[in-house]
Specification:
About 50% of the residues lie in helices and about 5% in strands. By secondary structure, it is mainly alpha-helical. The protein has a three-stranded parallel beta sheet. Strands 4-5 form a two-stranded parallel ribbon.
């Protein structure tokens, strides 16, 4: 058995882990240097030595070049009501003096706290707002197809947050779209010295993985997937659409930013399945399933992501983090029952599909995953 029972060590002896932050080799595009340090840790070192004053000047130049280009709005800001998008609006309205049009792709799985935070966000920062909400029936069918295609419940959200801001940019002819956190903040896909540039297919490549034309099936015809269709390259070129992540231009600290929004303006935290933090994806009811499927495929979930960030920030030791990971990552979320209800899968079918996704990765066995789940359950009952 490759499962490691040492509570202050990594869960699986069959995986390589970053020697500094504990991210495993099943992270997409994971890479380690000769010291066994991952890309995200090296990126965090780059972040400490960058000239952020120069980056701020670059950002101001970009904003000034788009300011007033549209008579009504200077930019489009995709928002969910979560901490990142709320901080984006704060910066743009209070620091940089922009007039944004806020746009929201609704996953139609809003939590009560999430709805209140979204309303708070719009009222606090006094912005106009548009929202696209796919029907509940469409979301349910997408949730079923999503598990089969990407081993995740949330294709419709990944695809929608990529498509709707682009649709809005073309429709309202507002060329600048401003996102928040840089991909370099916690992903092996980018570094602060080698940022991942935004283009039309950014969210498909990073998270959705399939275009609507590929995702369509007999019970989900392409016509029904209109909310997720990307504008043509020709339309985007005509409007001159450009997307940036503001986190590539300012020193990003998601937890400090959340505390600032919470303490100064009243943004709300809540319990989130799958982690010991109370702010990431607080706007959604489904992150527990999203992160649990990642654990079943790759052997790590959201608690691992948060531990890696906290270890890099010096807030805990890696050994302390491994104990938190064992407590949270393998835990089956209560919301899984709701997902099974709306998707039409049985629990056995759910685990069979996730077995296939894990087997495609070839990094872990079912026995290892089951041992981790059983150990987590034992720890909770002791």
């Amino acid at each position: 058995m490759a499962y490691n029972s040492d509570p202050r060590g990594p869960m699986f002896t069959s995986l390589q882990y970053c020697r500094r932050c504990g991210l495993p080799s099943t992270e997409p595009e994971a890479r380690y240097d000769r010291l066994g340090i991952c890309v995200s840790c090296r990126s965090s070192e780059q972040k400490m030595h960058m000239d952020w004053h120069e980056r701020d000047r670059e950002l101001r130049d970009i904003l000034d070049s788009f300011r007033g280009r549209n008579p009504d709005y200077d930019c489009i800001v995709p928002i969910s009501g979560g901490k990142d998008s709320a901080f984006q609006l704060y910066l743009l309205t209070h620091v940089y003096g922009m007039k944004p049009l806020a746009c929201t792709f609704s996953h139609n799985w809003y939590s009560e706290t999430g709805r209140k935070n979204l309303e708070w966000c719009l009222e606090t920062f006094k912005v106009d707002h548009i929202m696209s909400t796919p029907s509940r029936d469409l979301v349910n069918r997408c949730a079923r197809r999503s598990l089969e295609m990407i081993g995740d419940s949330c294709w419709h959200c990944h695809a929608g947050i990529g498509a709707f801001p682009l649709q809005a940019a073309v429709r309202f002819e507002v060329p600048l779209i401003i996102y928040g956190e840089s991909a370099a903040e916690g992903s092996a896909m980018a570094e602060y010295e080698n940022i991942l540039e935004y283009d039309r297919d950014y969210f498909t490549n990073v998270s959705a993985k399939f275009f609507p034309e590929e995702f369509a099936t007999d019970y989900l015809p392409l016509r029904d997937l209109a909310p997720f269709r990307l504008p043509s390259y020709e339309d985007l070129e005509r409007v001159g659409v450009r997307g940036i992540h503001i986190g590539n231009y300012i020193f990003w600290d998601g937890e400090r930013q959340m505390e600032f929004l919470r303490d100064k303006f009243g943004w709300r935290e809540d319990t989130v399945d799958g982690t010991y933090k109370c702010y990431k994806s607080v706007e959604c009811k489904m992150p527990g399933v999203h992160d649990y499927t990642k654990f079943l495929k790759r052997g790590y979930g959201r608690a691992t992501d948060h531990v890696a960030q906290d270890v890099r920030a010096g807030l805990m030791t890696l050994e302390e983090g491994f104990e938190l990971i064992r407590e949270h990552d393998p835990k089956e979320p209560k919301i899984l029952d709701y997902y099974l209800e709306v998707s039409g899968y049985t629990k056995d079918e759910f685990y069979e599909i996730m077995d296939r996704h894990r087997e495609e990765l070839g990094a872990l066995s079912r026995e290892e995953i089951d041992a981790a789940r059983l150990d987590a359950e034992r720890r909770r009952t002791v």
